[in-house]
Design a protein that fits this description.
- The structure is a homodimer.
- Chain A has about 450 residues and is an alpha+beta fold.
- Chain A folds into 2 domains: about 160 residues, Anticodon-binding domain (Rossmann fold); about 200 residues, BirA Bifunctional Protein, domain 2 (2-Layer Sandwich), CATH 3.30.930.10.
- Helices cover about 40% and strands about 25% of the residues of chain A.
- The first copy, chain A, contains 15 helices and 21 strands.
- The relative contact order of chain A is 0.10.
């Protein structure tokens, strides 16, 4: 009874919230229900997760609406920026800092027919559909035939970015003078038919969207297993680099539905591990298939030999990555101020490179007009140098410094700057650090360089 | 006869190439055919355009394949990087450098039913479709009903990013303390049913994808026309900033199919102007509709008053933007070397901020091993500082310096660096500028700073 009540609560509260990573959360919830049956300690873990979800919604990381009203869940401004930062770090690490990886961009829908028995999402023009329906002369059989043709014509939404890159392989060979190894990378949305259990969903749309980051690496067969190991090491280091608890990112053997072997990198969420990136050795089957087995055309040079390359695929789920770093960075801390109210200070200790907002500007005591001008000047200077600023000086609702810091900690803002009448006198601002909660004094002219060095240093650790 | 032959040639050569911006090129071709009938000067313009398209394909800006073989046209490595740079400049200009614009990210498919009579692209799960077909008990009428339900369930692919932002409006109001004006921005793919004339297409898929950049700006009705003017000015300046021929970007009045008025920014392509960005005053109709006319919920603060805001929409087509800058930057120059062969030197004078590759490294005369090491060191230093490098030192095919420069000019590489035995002696490298073709000497230790300053200076003009 207790378990089913909990499930109901979960269904009511959680489900409507986290449609975004629906499949993921479905599993989280189911494993929570299982845990709940077996032990008590799961309760506190669930409460932590629930606090995090509340925070993500209140602080504009994830948005949500009522499904029946037709709203879709997606990223709010802070979540969108966090994800953008994650995307740009992935790209920097895999593409921009390497000589042999090139970015490509392919279409979201594939015209090539993929396996017919596989489940997939088809696109179709509703005018054409209406035309077929309106044609009353068609027999049932003819109508089915027309629909099938229509479906065939519209193309299929891509399930991953691998095929797009493989299609570009021959064209790209030319770019590298036929020399192996090299890689083609792409970040974009891929689509899956929704397979959520009916039990948990009443009126749900049937499409799930994921932002994938994909590297397709072409190397000689003799070196492909070394390259697989290389990319596993590289990618695991990368995921751990931005984490407070790096050991929650782990690697383990993996095999996909088609029998391809490799390694998956998991994040250990409160209720179980979920893969954030999968590295697989795909062999040359798909390459031969896409290029119609044209062996000579697809040969690359490995030293002095011409060989048909093997494909190693690195495929990350960046939406799940965002969830992983939100969980990783979420900390509950005792606060003397709040203890009486039985509350904790909630902080998102997001890595400086990923934090959506680096610094918040606020006005302390002093003449409003002048302070606002100073804030505006500093704000523009920081924005011009690509530092994301929260313009707290534009807010018209008065808040105490404590309230502000509580809010900024929940937003994952790294530094809070207060500009007050003493700034007007001697140029000194107060700078508070999210992670240490320490306050420091700094001359206003040094703020920009200090922040740039701080963020830069974090990326080189 | 001549015209129809030309059309055939266009169909054969062009059409298979430029599926990417298909609708756009269809119109280009049709207007070319019209021009061809009326004057002679069109010929040379067309030849220039054809040279550009050859270059884009040879130099890995745009890729293509044979449609019947199932390949899709899309961006090659250089085009993908050019587009990425354009996207990041748009984002910087509209979002990152402003206090009142926030990025969001919404789903590619909408669950809300849009106007039923409108043409739109529906998504459907082919397993469900197969299930309906296999059910032999269904009458024709029942089958139609099942299909209609299936279509309703799958959702619609978005045609623009406006609705996604408007759905997030109420949630975002909270973020800005109800204070108007503010904006929500997003860059992503949107979809259109393909409306290419049958005459020009044999076996074409029916979906067209465009990368849209969208700002939805919420302001009080009394100021919305001022804001419209503001954004038109800002956006026109932005497009012109990166152009060699800024006057080819022009603005003129525009009205969309639904009667919304505003201004469109056009690029004057060789065969006619095409809009690259449209700024419209959408009023509050859609806002009220999405939020079910809930007037109090959608009110924002304009000074001391509570008002229902007006929506000004800025909507750019970044794929067409890429084409515009490719046309703009394409220059044919007389070359003494090539004159005998009746050829021109082809250069893509792409703006330093947009150029996909900033610098190419090459080895001159000297000991191969040592020179390669020096190149590798410099290459890594530049990559680490986010400067896109072409690793010419990895190429094993020998080319003369002249051949290399011809190639790099076509790729739009801004600087070509040659490292030779004199570099080993005194650290001096030779640096050749794409636009001036002048060669300069520079100490190898100064290369990184020189390039960073050069690119930075270009963004502040």
């Amino acid at each position: 009874m207790a378990a089913s009540l909990t499930a109901y609560r979960i269904k009511g509260v959680w489900y409507s919230r986290i449609k975004l990573c629906r499949k993921f959360f479905e599993r989280q919830i189911l494993s929570y229900v299982a845990l709940r049956k077996s032990s008590i300690s799961a309760d506190s873990q669930f409460e932590v997760l629930e606090l995090l979800m509340d925070l993500c919604q209140n602080r504009h990381f994830l948005t949500s609406g009522h499904i029946r009203m037709g709203f879709v869940n997606s990223y709010g401004p802070l979540g969108a920026e966090l994800k953008r930062n994650l995307i740009s770090q992935w790209w920097k690490s895999v593409v921009l800092s390497r000589e042999q990886v090139f970015g490509v961009e392919t279409l979201h829908h594939l015209v090539t027919a993929t396996g017919q028995n596989e489940s997939s999402l088809k696109v179709l023009d509703n005018r054409m559909f209406e035309e077929i329906i309106k044609n009353e002369e068609l027999t049932k059989k003819q109508m089915v035939a027309s629909f099938q043709e229509l479906l065939h014509k519209g193309g299929t939404l891509r399930k991953n970015l691998i095929q797009g890159a493989i299609e570009q392989y021959v064209y790209s060979l030319n770019l590298v003078n036929q020399k192996l190894p090299f890689g083609l990378a792409q970040i974009g949305v891929s689509y899956e038919p929704e397979t959520i259990s009916v039990e948990l969903s009443d009126s749900v749309d049937s499409v799930s969207e994921v932002t994938s980051a994909s590297l397709v690496w072409f190397s000689a067969a003799r070196t492909s297993s070394q390259w697989l190991d290389y990319w596993v090491r590289q990618r695991l280091l990368w995921w751990r680099k931005f984490a407070i608890g790096p050991s929650k990112f782990i690697s383990s053997d993996y095999q996909d539905n088609e029998g391809n072997k490799g390694t998956a990198l998991y994040y250990n969420f409160p209720s179980g591990k979920e893969p954030v990136e999968v590295i697989l050795n795909l062999g040359n089957r798909q390459l031969l298939q896409v290029h119609h087995g044209n062996g000579t055309k697809i040969q690359g040079r490995d030293g002095r030999k011409n060989v048909i390359p093997c494909v190693v695929s690195v495929s990350g789920n960046l939406d799940r990555g965002v969830m992983a770093y939100l969980c990783d960075s979420f900390h509950l801390e005792d606060s003397t101020v709040l203890k009486k109210k039985m509350q904790h200070r909630k902080v998102l200790k997001i890595h400086p490179n990923l934090a959506p907002i680096k610094v918040a500007l606020n006005m302390g005591r002093g003449p409003t007009q002048e302070l606002r001008q100073v804030c505006q000047g500093l704000c523009q200077e920081l924005l011009d140098h690509g530092i994301a600023v929260w313009p707290g000086h534009l807010e018209t609702v008065q808040s105490s410094m404590e309230q502000l810091c509580l809010k900024y900690d929940e937003m994952g803002v790294i530094f809070t700057i207060v500009i007050s009448d003493s700034t007007l006198e001697n140029g000194i601002v107060v700078l508070r650090n999210r992670d240490t909660t320490m306050k420091e004094m700094l001359h206003i002219s040094e703020v920009k360089n200090f922040l740039m060095k701080y963020i830069d240093a974090a990326s080189n650790i």
